[in-house]
Amino acid sequence: QDASKWGLNMAFLDKSKDFPVGQVCVNFMEGDFRDYRDVLEFGKDMDIVTIEIENVNTRALYELEKQGISVYPQASIVETIKNKGLQKDFYTRHDIPTCPYIKTNNKADVYALIETGKISYPFIQKKCEEGYDGRGVVAIMSQDEDHQIFEEPSIVENFVNIDMELSVIVGRNADGQCVTYPVSEMVFNKQGHLLDMLVCPARIGEKKALQARQLAEKVAERLDIVGLLAVEMFLTPDDRILVNEVAPRPHNSGHHTIEAFWVSQYEQLIRAITGLPLLQTDHFQPAVMINLLGERGFHGTPHYEGLDMILEVEGVFPHIYGKAVTKPLRKMGHVTVVRDKLSDAIDMAQKLKNHIKVKS
Amino acid sequence: QDASKWGLNMAFLDKSKDFPVGQVCVNFMEGDFRDYRDVLEFGKDMDIVTIEIENVNTRALYELEKQGISVYPQASIVETIKNKGLQKDFYTRHDIPTCPYIKTNNKADVYALIETGKISYPFIQKKCEEGYDGRGVVAIMSQDEDHQIFEEPSIVENFVNIDMELSVIVGRNADGQCVTYPVSEMVFNKQGHLLDMLVCPARIGEKKALQARQLAEKVAERLDIVGLLAVEMFLTPDDRILVNEVAPRPHNSGHHTIEAFWVSQYEQLIRAITGLPLLQTDHFQPAVMINLLGERGFHGTPHYEGLDMILEVEGVFPHIYGKAVTKPLRKMGHVTVVRDKLSDAIDMAQKLKNHIKVKS
Questions:
Q1: Residues B293, A333: contact at Cβ < 8 Å?
Q2: What band does B196 get if pLDDT is binned at 50, 70 and 90?
Q3: Does residue B10 sit at the A interface (CB-CB below 8 Å)?
Q4: Torsion region of B141: left, alpha or beta (phi above 0 gives left; psi -120 to 50 gives alpha)
Q5: Cα–Cα distance between A257 and A289 in angstroms, integer?
Q6: Which end of chain A has the smaller Cβ count within 10 Å, N or C?
Q7: Are residues B54 and B78 in contact, defined by beta-carbon separation less than 8 angstroms?
């Protein structure tokens, strides 16, 4: 949609025309972005190819690069990032602070680590591949939960004390111009990995904010990425900032940029991959973003309860993704609240969160 | 595009898939909106039908209404507005201040008015039908220009002294809720009817601004319109505000609402016709909009000279409509400049205006 403002000729690949992108984009190819031939067939006549999720067939991206097509982010970066083990090794290699981790090939490896005391309860296990939105991640609190340990190649990490989870969106173009958005604060729900609320700017001091943005920029530069990079970080009680993980694409923690900034993450991505100058992000309004998740216990055609109230208020921006079916905790949309004062945005978002429910 | 944020199921009718809307909308029907059967065929399965230009076949709109489809703006309003004679008569009937006018059926009528002294040079003649963007309008400065007088049914008006041309966009839903945007000032070029620059808010006092918004609201209410109404007005040296003409649809003088307001004219239209609450327009940033017109002397595939500079500056928003061919003075796009201070926006817009050229 952002590209269409400029009359750019865009095409999209996804599994079904009924998926959200199929409803707003004219040049659409049905296919599986995990499939080598589909990605190659789709990309071979393009000038530039980019991604909105990292689980794309990397082999096909390499092949497209070989054919002289500009693939941004570059195939090797997608390959590194989509495997959590490779991603972690990259941080280690480049002196980027991250939580200590150990790589495991199977369940037996994990048990061995426990027995030898190299890892202790509670700990986190993350599958190297196919982790996304809290999937492929498990917290093992005690021996009673050992049955939940994954068999797949993984990384395991001891619990780290965290004061706050932060995110910085970075844009970077082929000239090496690099622009960061102000730090966002990700407030997670008690149960675990679901984002409760995204708050921008993060309620941290200026110095820490600058430090987080510089660290995010460093990751982008060391990756040599062209495109967008969302850098998720932990702020620890002893004031260290650790990189948790990155995503080389438009990110949930940047949705608020659509309304709160003069330049959205999507426009910044288009600028980055087409070689246009990136825009600074100095002008913005405080914003809070909440996800609209499918309510537990409901499965089927979505009904958005409480949407009416959300549509009455100035500076409240609902986005409904148009998915045909709601499932428990499925991301069905999001709402951004923009206010002159951050505390007002937080209050309003909390009110809306209690009010809107995606049922069926 | 605004409707797609909410997952609304939209469909569009225009002459060619190559037209701008065909490039961004999936449900597209090729057809002529001036044709009775095309409009009927297109509209018969819709819940709600709206327009983006008033030259739609009105008879078909009436028929759709008869079939129980919600046509907004209503067929009778489109019929009144698209004929300048009927539109003027409407103002007279409802005590809405407007420039004095006389209706004529043909050239001979105009000559008779001149001879009897009921009209005198210089005067303006506007064709009743098919006037749009300065087309169908002629200024007859002296007897030497009599050969330019139109044969078609028209209205003629003596020149009125004008200090400023103003525009107010009104949204109104079926419940009668009515919302106006702050007044915009339309700065025209010396030669005549081409908009040089749109400035919002208009550089007039608060009292006059309120008066203009109230007058615009009155027109919308008397029309009983559901949808959007752009009300173009003259501010005279003796401080009267006269309605010049109205358009029952998203309007060039509201393009800046996309970036400068929390709610764009397009979203407001969707709200109005779907029966949602309209949003207030209190939060906005000063903005200036310039049209990108095809340069004189160029005809063919457009090349946007100077676009690079426009893409470098934060708060400068180019919109390229994606038209396949540029012609002299054809609207090929627009640029909105948003700034904290209006004077800064004006300065920047003037700079851009001298810099960007649509050539071929």
A1: no
A2: confident
A3: no
A4: alpha
A5: 10
A6: C
A7: yes
SS (H, E, C) A7-51: CCCCCEEECCCCCHHHHHCCCEEECCCCCHHHHHHHHCCCCEECC
Q: A279 CB near a chain B CB, below 8 Å?
A: yes
Least-confidence region, from A22-26, A242-246, A264-268: A22-26
Among partner residues A262, A271, A319, which is closest to B315 by beta-carbon distance?
A: A262
DSSP B69: -
Alpha-carbon distance of A6 to A267, in angstroms, equals 10
Q: Are B22 and B15 in contact (CB under 8 A)?
A: no
Give the per-residue pLDDT at B9. Answer: 87
Q: Three-state SS for A311? A: coil
Q: Is A263 in contact with B314 (Cβ distance < 8 A)? A: yes
Q: Which candidate, A333, A250, A255, places its Cα nearest to that of A289?
A: A255
Which secondary structure element, helix H or strand E, spans residue A303, and what is its range? strand A303-305
DSSP-derived 3-state class of residue A156 = strand
Q: How far is B258 from chain A (nearest CA, A)?
A: 11
What sign has the CA pseudo-torsion A202, A203, A204, A207?
positive
Q: Is A24 on the interface with B (CB under 8 A)?
A: yes
> What 8-state DSSP symbol labels residue B183?
P
Q: Which pLDDT score, from 0 to 100, does residue A307 have?
A: 86
- Among the listed residues B20, B3, B12, the one whose alpha carbon sits nearest the alpha carbon of residue B39: B12
Of chain A, the end-to-end C-alpha distance in Å amounts to 28
Is A143 touching B (CB cutoff 8 A)?
Answer: no
B313 chain-A contacts, CB cut-off 8 A: 279
Separation CA B339–CA B128 (nearest Å): 39
Question: Are the C-beta atoms of B230 and B247 separated by less than 8 Å?
Answer: yes
Amino acid at B32: D
The complex's ipTM? 0.85
The CA distance from B238 to B330, in Å, is: 35
pLDDT score of A192 more than 70: no
pLDDT at B3: 84
Which tens digits make up the pLDDT trace of B37-85? 999 999 999 999 999 999 999 999 999 999 999 999 999 999 999 999 9
Cβ-Cβ contacts under 8 Å, B333 against chain A: 7
Which has the closest alpha carbon to A244: A73, A81, A75, A78? A81
Beta carbons of B287 and B347 less than 8 angstroms apart: no
B144: DSSP letter: G
Strands (E), B26-87: 28-30, 48-49, 70-71
Whether B311 and chain A come into contact, CB under 8 Å, resolves to yes
Strand partners, B313: none
Question: What's the CA gap between B119 and B348, in Å, rounded?
Answer: 42
Residue B258 contacts residue B323 (beta carbons within 8 Å) = no
Nearest CB to A314: which of B23, B26, B282?
Answer: B282
What are the backbone dihedrals phi and psi of residue A30, each rounded to the nearest 5 degrees, phi first? Answer: -75, 125
* Per-residue pLDDT reduced to its tens digit, B138-169: 999 999 999 999 999 999 999 999 999 999 99
CB count in 10 Å sphere of residue B181: 29
Helix (H), strand (E) at residue B333: strand B331-338
B-chain residues near A284 (CB < 8 A): none
A240 contacts A183 by C-beta, under 8 angstroms: no
Spatial distance between the Cα atoms of B346 and B339, rounded to a whole number of angstroms: 9
3-state helix, strand, coil in chain B (%, to 5): 30, 30, 40
In a mutational test of the B interface, the residue from A6, A258, A340 whose CB has the highest number of chain B CBs within 10 Å is A6
